[in-house]
Amino acid sequence: ARRPEAQIRSADSAGSLPYRGVDVLDAHVELLGHLLLGLELRLVQGRLQQIAAEGRKFGIHLLVSTQRPQKVHENVLSQCDNLILMRVNSAADLAYLGEMFSFVPGGLLAQSTGFGLGEALVAGKISPQPTLVRFGARISEEGGSDVGKGWAERT
Question: CA-CA to 128 of 20 to 30 Å: which in 2, 34, 44, 68?
């Protein structure tokens, strides 16, 4: 069997990887906690750490979105070169973010407790300097619906 790295290279050269990113959202963390147990969960977490550490050389990027930064493994978070931070109320979360994203001035991080709807701090390689931004109103129609109560049950 080919190694995963060879499979990625092969798929990429064939043009069959239209989106080279892995999104990890809070909902996925909750899903993993309910569906995966023990060894399975450690294997998934290990793969996420590997993607965070080595994915860029294969053109794969990791987007981590969370309201609970201390729940994201530090080996994953430490590989994040960019930060888009919206309102944070927890002093513990702010302190942790300050440690993990030391390139962001503490005074700017502290301002996040007063952010309103659509306000954020952008820092890292995506911005020449840490910047406070305000996002405009959405232009697309809002959609979606609630997920059924049995979504996390094992089959």
Answer: 68
